[in-house]
Amino acid sequence: AQKITQTQPGMFVQEKEAVTLDCTYDTSDQSYGLFWYKQPSSGEMIFLIYQGSYDEQNATEGRYSLNFQKARKSANLVISASQLGDSAMYFCAMREDLDQGGSEKLVFGKGTKLTVNP
Amino acid sequence: EADIYQTPRYLVIGTGKKITLECSQTMGHDKMYWYQQDPGMELHLIHYSYGVNSTEKGDLSSESTVSRIRTEHFPLTLESARPSHTSQYLCASSESGTDYNSPLHFGNGTRLTVT
Predict the structure, then answer these.
(1) Closest-approach residue (CA) in chain B for A9
(2) Distance from the Cα of residue B45 to its chain's centroid
(3) How far apart, in whole angstroms, are the C-alpha atoms of residue A66 and residue A77?
(4) B68-98 per-position pLDDT tens digit
C-alpha cells in the first residue's frame, strides 16, 4: 500500500513571496506518479502539476514547480510569487493500481491549508 | 479542458430520504470515480468504474451504490440518507491506458447535508 504524508496542516506566506509545501510518500513500486491538486473554499479539485518517478527533471508549470527528491521520497510543491488567489487547500497525491482490471486511483494526503497574506 | 459535471451543487435533505447524486463527463473517459471528503480532510475513494457495466467499491466503506449504464454517466445513490452521510462527494474521471501522468479530472462536487 502507498501512503502520502503532508506534515504541515497550515502555512502562511506573504504576497509575492515563495512558499514550499511538503509531501513525502511511501511506496515499493518502481514506477509511480505524483500529483498536486489545489482545492479552493468552493470545493473543486484543480490539477496543478505532475511528476513521474522516472522523470529526470523537476516538473514546472508556470509559478508551480515540484522539488522531487526520489531517494528521500519527497515531492514538495514550490509556489513562487504567491498571490492572494493561491489561498486554498493543497493536496499531494500518488497514483496507485486498484486491481487487474486496469484501473487505478489517486491516494491523497491530508492536505495543507495555505493562507496568503497581503 | 476537463468537462465533468455534478448536480446538485448543494443538497439539504431529511433523514430517510432516497437521493441520487449525478455525475456526467463529456470526454469519453472509461474510468470514473467517487470520492468522499469531510471538511478540511483528505479524500477517500468510495466507488470506481473502469467502463460500462463495471462498478467496484473503494477503500472507504459506504452505504451508497453506483451504476454505470453509459460511459458518460456515473450516478451515486443513497437509499436512505442519514446524518452520518453528511459530507462532500467528488466525482472524477481519467483517460484509459497505463499512462501514469494522466490526472484525474474532478467535478465541482456535491455538498450533502442530512438533517
Answers:
(1) B40
(2) 9
(3) 5
(4) 999 999 999 999 999 999 999 999 998 876 5
Q: Give the pLDDT confidence of A25-45 residue by residue, as tens digits.
A: 998 888 889 999 999 998 899
Compute φ and ψ for B32, nearest 5 degrees: -135, 155
Q: Which three cell numbers stand for residue B115?
A: 438533517
CA A11 to CA B83: how far, in whole Å?
32
CB pairs under 8 A between A and B: 67
Q: What are phi and psi of A86, to 5 degrees?
A: -80, -10
Task: Determine the residue type at B52.
Answer: V
Contacts of A108 in chain B (CB under 8 A): 42-43
Place of cell 471538511: B39
Question: What residues contact residue A105 under an 8 Å CB cut-off, 6+ apart?
Answer: A95, A96, A98, B33, B45, B48, B58
Q: Compute φ and ψ for A78, nearest 5 degrees.
A: -115, 125
What is residue B69's three-state secondary structure?
Answer: coil
**CA distance linking residue B109 with residue A25, whole number of Å:** 26
- Say if residues B76 and B66 touch (Cβ distance below 8 Å): yes
The pLDDT of residue B81: 95
Out of B45, B96, B101, the one facing A50 most closely (by C-beta) is B101
Q: Which residues of A45-74 are buried (b: 16+ CB within 10 A; e: fewer)?
A: bebbbbbbbeeeeebeeeebbbbbeeeeeb
Query: What is the Cα–Cα distance from B8 to B1, expressed in whole angstroms?
Result: 21
